[in-house]
Structures are given as structure tokens and as C-alpha cells.
Amino acid sequence: MRLDLAVARAFALSRRAAREAVRSGRIEVAGVTRDEPGLDVGEDAKLSFYPGRPPRHRVQTRLAVLAEDDDFLIVDKPAGLLSVPTAERERVTLLSRALDYLHHRYRRRPYAGVVHRLDKETSGALVFARSRPALRSLQQQFRAHTIEREYLAIVEGKLPASGTLDLDLLRDAGDRRRGVARAGEVGKRAITHFRVLEWMEAATLVSVTLETGRTHQVRVHFAAAGHPVLGDRVYRRPSGAPPPREVPRQMLHARRLGFAHPATGAFVEALSPIPDDFSKALAALRKEKKKPRGARGFQHSRSFKTS
Questions:
Q1: Computed over its alpha carbons, how large is the radius of gyration of the chain?
Q2: Burial, 276: exposed, middle or buried (Cβ in 10 Å; 0-12, 13-18, 19+)?
Q3: From CA 127, how far away is CA 112, in angstroms rounded?
Q4: Element (H, E) at 281
């Protein structure tokens, strides 16, 4: 069990308050101060809470840390924030917040190597490397497709219980957007697996795992199959029926991230809680009344391999 969760349960604190108590050095485990919220502790661990103790670290709270050690930093990216700066050189990004956090926590020049990215409007778990050897290890794992990534997505329409989207992708489909390779075109191999978690009247909640990791892979694949991610204003075709619900952003969330530790090889896993806007969209869709006969349901597509 994570230390922050154990603290929350033991002392009736919110998860945020528990994380801050741990980070500020106000929690002891078996008499030893521990300040890693993601530390794995037993359910019978002896915990002590000292709310009046001066904070050990004054850490910026604009960054939600899921797990960290000397080699990596896994953070919870909010929707609407860029992972890294673009050519416009934006000053506020997830990377800048990670560097700010590391500087305030450790009081030395920070290093945060970029391993991968999430789209601006996608939320969830993302890892930075804290050393160059760790960066090389994590990037190699991404290239070898051994990183475990699970996404939650709300997609339009109804899908079969499980399946695979196996469609090569193009960097530019002719409209300066990524797309699916047509006959005679050479694209990059892209494989997406999905499993239905819940069917609703006009949408489906799916768990998505990636066999490959191409840019915009999930969004392009589901849009090409006729079931765009709800709220995706880039890849959803403008023609056809309106979306089942208006939402503030694309409903795509990186829920789980797992990899081999860069130094020890031990399996590391982090889970990102479902954000409020995602939960609200789900709740609203669950309340939708049944539509009259003839409403759109599952659309068969050549891109599906059902299982």
C-alpha cells in the first residue's frame, strides 16, 4: 500500500493532505521520517503523525506526484497543460513544473529528462527521468514497447466487448493531421487493444492498451473506426450525427503506467485517479434516456479484430 494512502486511512485525512504531510516530513514509519508519498508500506506499518512539526521541505503543490525516487519522477498531468514546450517556447508546462518541484524539494540544480509525452488535453500518469542513465533506460523501454500503459477513454457509439485496432499511421494524411495509411501508402505500424468496461446509451467506456506507441494513436485509431474519443475536435469527422454530449476536452486519461526500474529492474507501477471532468462526463452519459429506434449503435469496420 502507498504511504500516502495508509496515512489518509490512519489519520482520517484527504489524499492531498496525506501527501503533503508525508512530503513535509511530518510522518514517521516505525520511528523513521519518510517523505516519499509513493513508498510501499505494509498494512500493519506503525505510522506516527506530527502535525505541529516544522515542514522539512517547502515544495510547490502545483504538481501531483504519483511516485518518485532517485531515478524517476512519475507525475499526474492535468488536462490543458502541455507536457513540454513547443516551438512557441511556453514557460508553463508539465516539464517546468517538474523542474520547479525538484528544485524546491532537493535544493540543487534539477534534472528531468523527457521520456514521453501526453497530448495537451489528455490527463494522467507521465514519467520523467532524474538522471541521464535512467533516461536512456526508460527511452529504450519505450522504443522496445515494453512500457505498460493503460488508458481510459469514452468513445462515441457502442463497441464489441473487446478487440484490436491494427492500422498503420501516417504522420501527415494530407491535411497536416495524422491519419490512417490507405492502400499503397507506407505508414508506421500501430496496434491498439481495447476492452469494454461499460456500455452506455450512446457511448462506451473502454480500457485501452498500446502494443505500439505512436503520436495520437488512440485518437486516430478510434476515429478511423467510426468511434472517435468523445470531445476530440481534431480527428472527429464533422459530418454525421452530433456527439452524444458536449464535454470540455477529449475524454482520454492515462490511468496506469508500469516499467522496469532503470537501476534495479524491479517493476514500478503508478495509478492516476480519474479526474473530475472525466467522472462528470461519465455520470451525465449514464443518465441519458434511451434514444428512439434508429439511433446509432455499433458500426462495423474493417479495422476491428474482435476477440
A1: 21
A2: exposed
A3: 9
A4: helix 276-286
Q: Which of 4, 71, 119, 277 is catalytic?
A: 119
Q: Which helix (H) or strand (E) holds 48?
A: strand 47-49
pTM: 0.74
Smallest CA-to-CA distance from 131 within 106, 148, 153, 149 is with 106
Same-domain check for residues 169 and 271: yes
What is the C-alpha separation between 302 and 224, in angstroms, rounded?
10
Q: Which DSSP letter does residue 57 get?
A: -
Report which secondary-structure segment, H or E, holds 148: strand 148-156
119 a catalytic residue:
yes
pLDDT in tens, the chain (307 residues): 889 899 999 999 998 888 888 878 899 999 988 877 878 889 899 999 998 887 654 444 478 999 999 999 999 999 999 999 988 888 889 999 999 999 888 877 899 999 999 999 999 999 999 999 999 999 999 999 999 999 999 999 999 999 999 999 988 777 777 888 887 788 889 999 999 999 999 999 999 999 988 889 999 999 999 999 999 988 998 777 788 889 999 999 999 999 999 999 999 999 999 999 999 999 999 987 555 444 343 343 444 555 4
- 42 and 181 share a domain? no
Structural domain boundaries enclosing 162: 59-306
Largest CA distance in the chain: 69
Q: Where among 58, 74, 105 does a domain terminate? A: 58
Q: Is 144 found in the same domain as 29?
A: no
Distance CA 58, CA 56 (A): 7
Q: What is the CATH number of the domain that holds 28?
A: 3.10.290.10
Return the DSSP state at 68: E
